[in-house]
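The record is given unchanged here:
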Amino acid sequence: MTQSTMIDPFGRAIDYLRVSVTDRCDFRCVYCMAEDMTFLPKRDLLSLEELDRLCTVFIEKGVRRLRLTGGEPLVRKNIMHLVRQLSRHLKTGALEELTLTSNGSQLERFADELADCGVKRINVSIDTLDPEKFHAITRWGRLEKVMRGIEAAEKAGLKIKLNTVALRGFNEDEIPEMLRWAHGRGMDMTVIETMPMGEIDGDRTDQYLPLSLLRAQLERQFTLTDIPFKTGGPARYVRIAETGGKLGFITPMTHNFCESCNRVRITCTGMLYMCLGQDASADLRASLRASEGNETLASAIDRAIARKPKGHDFVIDRRTNRPSVSRHMSVTGG
């Protein structure tokens, strides 16, 4: 396979693709979804074969890192067939990394097979180590099941990074303990500011915790040193002297990371979003289904990359309490 490079209007090479394989999830996290979510009809979703074809065209165009997301990617029926298909690009060297972001609920079932497909690391989203609080924030989740999934992933040799959304009044006092727990198990951790995406049942202005504030709180008990470590995503990392581990900060609100953005996202229906925080998109499903060849699809991708914006429009707005972006995070895939 010959690889080209996708360059956006601001000279950024686009080499990282995040693909939502489903908008469905077995949790209903309060900052992500409403409890009575209406999910897309199955006919609107790309088939696994279409997802494979779409990802392959992006890889031919220069994508080197591919992350499967959701919803919860592991609830998609026959998802491991897609993972196994995509793993062929790891074997040829066209793809440097195939990974996924999960809530951990299905890892007990799939960890061994993921490792067998060449997946080396995964992100697990977890916001508290308190079983009752965990159930409250996920509405449907059980912490012990996620913990069994993490153990299965560790046994399979997968490297795990914890993703934790920092929520005022919910887990800000617990983050030091989570940090010690994660680093004690050899896991890195990333904290994320809540993002104004999709209608939920609560008020995001009450949840919002600036990570600059969190960092100042952490520095009262830890020594944080900025390091240039990168995983391909938007996190800025520090080393924690007391634990020896790394902590990433993803700060779309207080300090956006747009100037170095190398990512685009595809939804499970084939919509390409050039920016998580804007509504500009391109319908790749139509191009995918218009022809058995990939020329139409490749041209549609080129046109979309030429429209990638410089930055996002996120704002937490107390006056209107409306999300900056109307679609839910589960649709775009984080």
